[in-house]
Structure formats: structure tokens, C-alpha cells
Prior knowledge:
Blueprint: H1 2-8, H2 15-26, H3 39-58, H4 60-64, H5 73-98, H6 104-112, H7 129-150, H8 156-184, H9 188-207, H10 219-224, H11 232-250, E1 260-262, E2 267-269, H12 275-285, H13 289-302, H14 304-324
Antiparallel strand pairs: 1-2
This protein binds fe (ii) ion (FE2) (2 copies).
Residues 86, 140, 143, 169, 172 line the site of one fe (ii) ion (FE2).
Amino acid sequence: MYAQMVKSEATNDDPEKLAEFQAKIDADIKIEPKDWMPQGYRKTLIRQIGQHAHSEIVGQLPEGNWITRAPTLERKAILLAKVQDEAGHGLYLYGAAETLGVSRDELTEMLLDGRMKYSSIFNYPTLNWADIGAVGWLVDGAAIMNQVPLQRTSYGPYSRAMIRICKEESFHQRQGYDAIRKMAEGTPEQKKMAQDALNRFWYPSLMMFGPSDKDSVHSAQSMAWKIKINTNDELRQKFVDQTVPQAEYLGLTVPDPDLKWNEERGHYDFSEPDWSEFFDVIKGNGPCNTDRLTARNKAWDDGQWVRDGLLAHAKKKRARHLAAE
Ligand SMILES: [Fe+2]
Ligand SMILES: [Fe+2]
């Protein structure tokens, strides 16, 4: 149905409608599910919201891995709540994507067979407890940077989902920072673990904003449609500027010898991540790509009997209802 839908809309972009549509966006009027929209707008949103939903769900895996091994009952309760929040974020976003005419099952199948992507950051392993702090601090921190402007995105259901999500994300970032602060202020061994986590998660976090603007394929059109509000490089810079003082406060060193404050620009200068690694991980060669997709496929297969049961129950109920009429 998804392929059909995209195909059948390929010819509907008449110039008058397009101009009307763009005028609405320029006037900050939200686009709602039943409004006319260009095929490219629908397609880009399905890709972006779907990819975002998948990231929330796959993002549960590296952290879920540590729920049973959290160092205290309090940390366990906090982590459990956070991982549960991510499931909720996935649901809001799948719901928003469904309003564009693609079903949740179709989206799931596209994730499971590799036609759709999720954020590459979740293809990196969480090796120890300090990593859980680093994920909350850096990964959720980078996610917020991306997501706060998306609250103003032009598509109504996406914008409303982002408003709810952002409320929870700031809590995620703070719990991560608090966990890593405890480590950084702990024994020399604990501090070393915190530093090692920062070393491993720094560049992958910078990659979360996507390739540099000059290499980013979708940027210009997405910005005109207000599907994207800031460029990748703008957001990356903002993240670096915000995070470096936080690392300094912890007494940790950002693993970039060229990092320094640039008085003239009013920003930090920093080294670009290794983009060949980024594209390699996207292609499926990251440390955990296979694990993540195997885990999601297993969950989908293991849940088949529940879906079958629910369907059978709904059918029976409907038959009883019809018989009674
Ligand atoms: Fe989230
Ligand atoms: Fe989060």
C-alpha cells in the first residue's frame, strides 16, 4: 500500500496547489492529515517520522541491557522509567506517521527487513555503567538539540508528538548527567570509566546530527517545508557549545586535541567526526547492527501469537455482535 500510495501521488503536484501549500507553510499554518500535500512532503515525512520512531524503539536496547545491572535500586527505577518513556515516544511517532497513510505494521516490516533506518548511534554497545550515564548525557542531549526545534515543524501531528516527547527528553538528559557526575566524582577507577565512556561516545554523538550541510541530500527542500528547522552543522555546533562546559564541570576531557574556544566566532572550534565510519555504520557494519535487528525481529516473531489472538478475539466479538442484531 505504501509503494502504491507514493506512486499514485507522483503526478498530483500541480503548481497552483504547490504555491498554496507553500504559502500556508510560510504563514506558519500547520498542515493536517486531510490537507493536500505534495507527494515529496508526505514521503519525506514518512521517512523522517518513521526513522525517528524506529530510533526510539531500537534505542531501548542498549539501555535495557543495563536495567538488571543498575548499581542501586534508585538508579534501576530511574532507568526503567526512562526506557519506558522511549517506548511511549515510539508510539506517539508511529501514531503520527500513520496519519500520513502508512500503517504501523508496514513501518515495522520496513525496519525489520532493513528498508528503513534508525539512528546509527544505537549500533554502538554500552559496555559498562558509565556508558549509561554517557548515553543519557550525550545521546539524549543531542536528541533534544534535534527535537526542540521540531516542536515547530509544519506537520501538525509530528509537531504535537514532539512537544510531548521534549518534556520527557530533558529529564533523560539530566538523569544521564547525574549518573556520570557520580562516576566522575567517585574513585579514580570510576572517574576513568567516565572518561572512557566520553571518549567512545563523543564522536558518535556528533554524528547524530547527520553529515555536514554541504553533503546532506535532503536539507534545502526539508527546510523550505519546515520539516527541518536548523541545518545539521548549526545543531552540531550548538551541541558542542553546550556540552564542552558540562564536561569541564565534571573534570573530564573531550577527546579532541583541536577543541578550543574561538573568540571571534563566539563558538568552539572542533574536529569533525570520521564520516567514513558514519557511512560504514549506516551500511550495516557497526559493532551492533546485527544484534539490534536480530533483537527486534525476535520480538516481532515472539509477539505473533499475541497479534493473532487479538485479531481472533476481535473477529469473534464482531461475529457475536452481528448475530445479536
Ligand atoms: Fe526518546
Ligand atoms: Fe530519551
